[in-house]
Please model this.
Amino acid sequence: DVKVTQSSRYLVKRTGEKVFLECVQDMDHENMFWYRQDPGLGLRLIYFSYDVKMKEKGDIPEGYSVSREKKERFSLILESASTNQTSMYLCASSLSTGNSPLHFGNGTRLTVT
Amino acid sequence: GQSLEQPSEVTAVEGAIVQINCTYQTSGFYGLSWYQQHDGGAPTFLSYNALDGLEETGRFSSFLSRSDSYGYLLLQELQMKDSASYFCAVRDRGKAAGNKLTFGGGTRVLVKP
Model:
């Protein structure tokens, strides 16, 4: 079974702090994704990566950056956390073939105060 | 860009049939997926339709009409464990070999005894 592990289940940070969310997958998947989930808005794509050191902006990249130094690890960085970044963050991975499903981690609930 | 519309909530009794509709507007379309998410859990893949017609997987079926930009997920013989949120998602052909997904807002299904 594919396992996508997010380092923290709950995180509380202060406004202006730099925040790192870590995600690791164990199935040698090429693609990795960061989504945020808010009630009524579904899942919105922040950034994705289709290879090591490669990254592409999603629909809502403002205020975020990412890093993929190794194939199995994809990090989401909030350079200066703000209260409107309080959300559930979901990491996912998939094979690169066309209709391969996304495998999600259990999410990190981030609260910025 | 992409946008998807689905109802926010559906309530039904055990044993009933529920149909969750999804209409989409996309700049390019390469398939419609469905994901299930229980409260506190990770979204999990249910089905994928690239061509018109009905795909059946046990009690769940998914339908697509590309000419109408419309699809639905059919849940039959509802069970209490089917209480969850269901998301439709469209596949976009990006550099991630087409696995970049845009999600709808989700439909919360509540199954009552």
